[in-house]
Amino acid sequence: MTNTQVTLLQIDNYGPWTVTPEPRREADLQTLQSRLYADVSQFVGNRDGYVFFTRFDNMIAVTNGLSREDHALLQESIGNRYPVTVSLGVATGTTPVQALSDATALIQEAGSAQDKNRRECLEGRTIDDAHRTGEDVQIAHFDVIDATGEYTDELNAFDTFIEIEQGYASLMRHMRRAHESLAFFVGGDNVIVVCPDLDEAQYEEAIYHVQEDVDVELQVGAGRGRSAHEAGIAAKHALEDCRADGTRIELGW
Amino acid sequence: MTNTQVTLLQIDNYGPWTVTPEPRREADLQTLQSRLYADVSQFVGNRDGYVFFTRFDNMIAVTNGLSREDHALLQESIGNRYPVTVSLGVATGTTPVQALSDATALIQEAGSAQDKNRRECLEGRTIDDAHRTGEDVQIAHFDVIDATGEYTDELNAFDTFIEIEQGYASLMRHMRRAHESLAFFVGGDNVIVVCPDLDEAQYEEAIYHVQEDVDVELQVGAGRGRSAHEAGIAAKHALEDCRADGTRIELGW
Amino acid sequence: MTNTQVTLLQIDNYGPWTVTPEPRREADLQTLQSRLYADVSQFVGNRDGYVFFTRFDNMIAVTNGLSREDHALLQESIGNRYPVTVSLGVATGTTPVQALSDATALIQEAGSAQDKNRRECLEGRTIDDAHRTGEDVQIAHFDVIDATGEYTDELNAFDTFIEIEQGYASLMRHMRRAHESLAFFVGGDNVIVVCPDLDEAQYEEAIYHVQEDVDVELQVGAGRGRSAHEAGIAAKHALEDCRADGTRIELGW
Amino acid sequence: MTNTQVTLLQIDNYGPWTVTPEPRREADLQTLQSRLYADVSQFVGNRDGYVFFTRFDNMIAVTNGLSREDHALLQESIGNRYPVTVSLGVATGTTPVQALSDATALIQEAGSAQDKNRRECLEGRTIDDAHRTGEDVQIAHFDVIDATGEYTDELNAFDTFIEIEQGYASLMRHMRRAHESLAFFVGGDNVIVVCPDLDEAQYEEAIYHVQEDVDVELQVGAGRGRSAHEAGIAAKHALEDCRADGTRIELGW
Questions:
Q1: B147 phi and psi angles, rounded to 5 deg
Q2: Less packed terminus of chain A by CB within 10 Å, N or C?
Q3: H or E element at residue D93
Q4: C-alpha neighbours within 13 Å on the C-beta side of residue D32
Q5: Nearest to residue A81, comparing CAs of D31, C42, D80, D16?
Q6: Residue B71 has what pLDDT?
Q7: Cis peptide bond prior to D96, omega within 30° of 0
């Protein structure tokens, strides 16, 4: 049974900062946001977690393997190197959405995202190493079947992008409502989903839902592990099996 | 009348590279993609252009002000510092979608995105400085009215994200089909749209379309300029007027 | 008694890479080198180690607290994100110079720095967590007394730089020969030295040696710890005592 | 005749910032310094200039080709993305040292490096495009003959570093006093020197001075150009001739 540890990272008072004293150059905001995300990806990823850029001022991470001290260090390091600070909420749950809801509530209780007095909150609990198992995290890695042949080499780059976005928007809604899962577009034609215990039938349902809804054909590899990296790399290998064998769904366990 | 110069940047043979010889750590791919985007944002942004991360392996930029030599230098610098290379297609058009279509075609004609022999193509034409005007670029900057109060401080972070994504997906389809415009989510609750000559009625139509379609309330500031930065900073200031005055649409000209 | 774990990181075949097929833009090489160093600094620093840029293609780190698996992960992550790869040698010794010599020999035995077949070697042994103590690392943090008043606000920036460099060159030679220590310039007017067990008399000797040799006045704070960070932060606090009290030497134990 | 445009970049109030409210983690300071330098290297380098890390809180650049507006943009972009700000002084001179002295004085007159009220000064004059020539900049690129064979593959990495440092310290003093030139270690075994009009005899004198002083054998390639990049890439090619032909000095004109 999954036991997902989810961390919400929220930049403190970011909206006001971007327009004070004047609106800042957009290219600089994009650079700041992307590099902050890249740094969090290295920190969390080097401890076998995954973080998703989400809205950039709010990032969602699967942090099984990171302790409270790790979270404090990440927060301190960002505060030393960026013109902004971040607040962190960590929680675990029977489903990823449950954990994420609790993590969000921890930060909301500390103060508004635009409360200029709320700075560098760190709330929540991490899973003791002794209580971790190889089934704590389930990751599903979806991609669009032959995106290059069907879209990238055929349509203009924005129309290709629209197709991928529509596929993602459909999958994200379905996985959240039907399966309490968190789905994130990660570039190219790839979507990574953080799931509770799902089986082949439920992945099949998801694929056909998206095909019916927006006419985008997906395939999926899924994996389990002690950490997001362990589950995710198993999912990537399973997806390679889909590509090699022409199957729509492959489970790495 | 607008004369948008659009550049499509596409990483060469990226899909195969990410899984050769084995699938690579996801956190490292995210770091690479984000930092590549950040570098392109600095290079293009420092010449008053805008670039949008789009799908990360394919990025769309508004490059009025960048010459062909600038494009060649960007390509060379990336080749010197990353384990991947990029191909670039540049075109101008009566509408942003038209320019982007032509830019895409230039790269597609040079070879598939997964053609291992296609490396560092540079095709297309830039606008002569002598032919540039203060109306070449029109940028519209949309955001969700009181996103912090309505969503961020109220819902869990993923449900807030779903609302923002649905609003974006609806706006992006509408602006592309009805107005040959390119819309990009840029973080937080912000969407930047690259437009041809649109007027207040057309922005009003867009806002009410999204409200009817997915029940997300947007406001918008628009600006014009010689470059994306010039148009975009005018749009940001116009959006500040919306926030200050409680209006839904403000034009910076 | 100190037990310093030292890692030598050496970029594989870097010299030839920088000029193949043609010499590469210097600004790009500088960017690559600095960002690679910054990434290693984050990775090592987040595990409470210190890494010094040294010659950029060869970096020396104090890695008490990093396991062999940590070293392998660092190497893999760099290989995923840079156009170069690195080899690593790790050793421990009764003195920092002894450990660094052994670490160097491990890499030299694997192959030349310009051997195009030597890639991503990882050799050596790390200290078991069970055998670590709070006296494993001794760090001394030197700076120039009132560098701002004496030099920065008075001389041209290059003449100030020459003074700092001469001070550093003198200290580095003395500390290596007299005390088997490794001294590194870390920016501003600061030099961080990795030492074996030294006492106040030996630090006094070092300060007066440099004053006699090149007429540069130094002060120093020293600290001990389980890791470079622990020893180093104690040294920084001791140096603050020098600044507050006007003393030349302060020991943090 | 050379006409070097030199810019001094100085971080505002950096010393105090690094210890307020408490001393900050050294690894984070190193990361910040290196990434700031890398960004300046990209900005300046993309306009065909060169910047040298120097002391990191003070960086020296050759900025022929950068206008005052370029300097203002660099300053603004840094202010948007870092927790520190920078002051800039620009000057030109008959020799590099003269230009650097004037650039330093401009900043010193604006206020102390640790004056908490001095922020983002921008002083000085750049060369009009109309007045630039192909002889404005002279760059000499020195390296140690067969450093890999003599040092890197033979000595421990710190003793190799000491040899390179001693060679650099000797060359830097000589070039500054005898030839009003600015010499910078750029990694590996390479030193780049910004010179006025020097001829073969003067380079020969420099090489033999260093050999006599510290027993380090150098070779050098020199180049001229409109910009640091143009002169520098010619110098790199000349240095390749030294390597290919076994000569000690090659001039690219």
A1: -60, -40
A2: N
A3: strand D86-93
A4: 25
A5: D31
A6: 98
A7: no
Angstrom distance (rounded) from CA B93 to CA B230: 19
Contact between A58 and B152 under an 8 Å Cβ cutoff? The reply is yes
B197: left (phi over 0), alpha (psi -120 to 50) or beta: beta
What's the pLDDT score for residue C163? 95
* Partner-chain residue, chosen from D32, D77, D80, that has the shortest CB–CB distance to A81: D32
> How far apart, in Å, are the Cα atoms of A208 and each of A149, A213, A215, A216?
21, 8, 9, 9
The two structure tokens encoding residue B77: 């610098």
User: Residue C229 in contact with residue D26, Cβ under 8 Å?
Assistant: yes
Distance from CA of A37 to the nearest CA of C (A): 14
Cα separation, C198 vs C182, in Å, equals 13
| Count, residues in chain B | 253
The full 3-state SS of B95-162, as one line of letters, equals: CHHHHHHHHHHHHHHHCCCCCCCCCCCEEECCCCHHHCCCCCEEEEEEEECCHHHHHHCCCCHHHHHH
List of residues 6+ apart from C93 with CB closer than 8 A:
C3, C4, C6, C99, C100, C101, C102
For residue D126, give the DSSP letter.
-
pLDDT of C201 reads 98
Residue A47 to residue A57: CA distance in whole angstroms: 22
User: Which residues neighbour B250 within 8 Å (Cβ) at sequence distance 6 or greater?
Assistant: B220, B221, B222, B238, B239, B241, B242
Note whether D166 contacts C: Cβ–Cβ < 8 A.
yes
At A131, list the tokens. Answer: 């209580």
Query: What is the average pLDDT across C96-111?
Result: 96
Question: Of D74, D73, D102, D110, which Cα lies nearest the Cα of D3?
Answer: D102
| Measured distance CA(C56)–CA(C36) in Å, rounded | 8
> Domain B137-251 belongs to what topology?
Alpha-Beta Plaits (3.30.70)
Place of tokens 């051997």: C115
In chain B, what are the domain boundaries? 4-131, 137-251
Q: Do domains A4-131 and A137-251 have the same CATH topology?
A: yes
Which residues 53-92 on chain C approach chain A with CB closer than 8 angstroms? 73, 77
CATH number of C4-131: 3.30.70.1230
CA dist B82 and B80 (Å) reads 6
Name residues 98-157 of chain B within 8 A of C (Cβ): none
DSSP state letter for C94:
S
User: Which residues in C lie closer than 8 A to residue A42 (C-beta atoms)?
Assistant: 39, 42-43, 77
Query: Where would I find the H helices in chain A?
Result: 14-18, 26-45, 68-81, 96-110, 147, 157-179, 200-214, 228-245
For D18-52, the pLDDT digits (tens) are: 999 999 999 999 999 999 999 999 999 999 999 99
Report pLDDT digits (tens) over B46-103: 999 999 999 999 999 999 999 999 999 999 999 999 999 999 999 999 899 999 999 9
Q: What is the mean pLDDT of each run of 10 residues along chain A (253 residues)?
A: 97 96 96 98 98 98 98 98 98 96 95 90 96 97 94 92 96 98 97 98 98 97 98 97 96 96
Beta bridge partners, C220, equal: C142, C249
Read off the amino acid at residue D154: E
Predicted confidence band at D172 (pLDDT cuts at 50, 70, 90)? very high
Structure tokens at B230: 């010039």
Euclidean distance between CA atoms B225 and A27, whole angstroms: 16
Distance CA C51, CA C37 (A): 8
Kindly report the pTM of this predicted structure.
0.97
* Closest CB from C28, C76, C83 relative to B77: C28
